[in-house]
Design a protein that fits this description.
By secondary structure, this protein is mainly α. 65% of the residues lie in helices and 1% in strands. It contains 16 helices and two strands. Strands 1-2 form a two-stranded parallel sheet. Helix 2 runs antiparallel to helix 3, helix 3 runs parallel beside helix 9 and helix 7 packs across helix 15. The longest helix has 25 residues. It starts with 11 loop residues before the first helix and ends with a helix. The relative contact order is 0.14. The C terminus is likely disordered.
Amino acid sequence: MVKESGLLRRARWFYALVGSGLTVALVATGFGIWLLGDSWFQLLMAAALGIIFTQFAFLAHEASHRQILKSGPNNDRLGRFLATFVVGMSYAWWMTKHTRHHANPNQIGRDPDIEIDTISFIEEDAASAKGLRALITRKQGYAFFPLLLLEGVNLHFISIRTLVSRAPVKGRWIELTSIALRFALYLGVLFWFLPLGMAFAFLGVQLAVFGLYMGASFAPNHKGMPIIAKDAKVDFFSKQVLTSRNIKGRVWASTLMGGLNYQVEHHLFPNMPRPYLARASEIVREYCKTLDVPYTETTLIRSYGIVIEYLNRVGLSARDPFDCPLVGQFRRV
């Protein structure tokens, strides 16, 4: 039905409009920075840049899934340019990580998106937390969104670390050159044009907005959905649907989240262009009813509540099992 409905055809007109709009927004922001000069209103421009870079990252993500152009190599060239030169991230690192995620979403030992980091996504990892990480893990649901303010720095750091590592990386020197040129131009203009303190503040705000926006767009997709055991055998359709969550809102949500609000359909048809996901959701929803497979959809705000609740529940595993008022009283006695 999806093929017959033409929902897998390219939508070059749509991506041409989005790409042109973002380019105009980027140029307009640069012009705004020039007009404002030595003013703390520049921080508004920094926040705007964080949003624009995230929107370009959405386009790079869609190019990596072959959604924009007809040719695979051309999509890769476009995605690598957007990711490295515009956003400042490694396209090769993203492709390796994201491909593994799509193959096995929320499956222990196979999905890199639930591997242990500052945040623990499964109870076993939370239980192993020690020291400062254990302290964070205990209330990690509440700490999750504040920590996303540092995710922009983390994404740049991981990208560069991957590219300078000894592991084989496709297009290593192209990406290193693009990222180095991007930061040289961006930081050079920023620190030449603005006073030192203001330049650092500008960079901090831009990175904070970028990290928060990126994390807040990807977090609702799978966090708090069923976790699949490492050795479990689940059919493709059930695996993709049961572990994914859609966000209500259609046009505004799709614009805000770069199409990630249709996460179920994106996982079932990863090369489907963004404009067709809404129509595909109607087909998939009906198909799920016939198979009695749960189809999850909620509001954006509710999804954040679910994420926080889930992470705090996982974080309980990092707490001392004897850490309760009654036991504490007996210890003092």
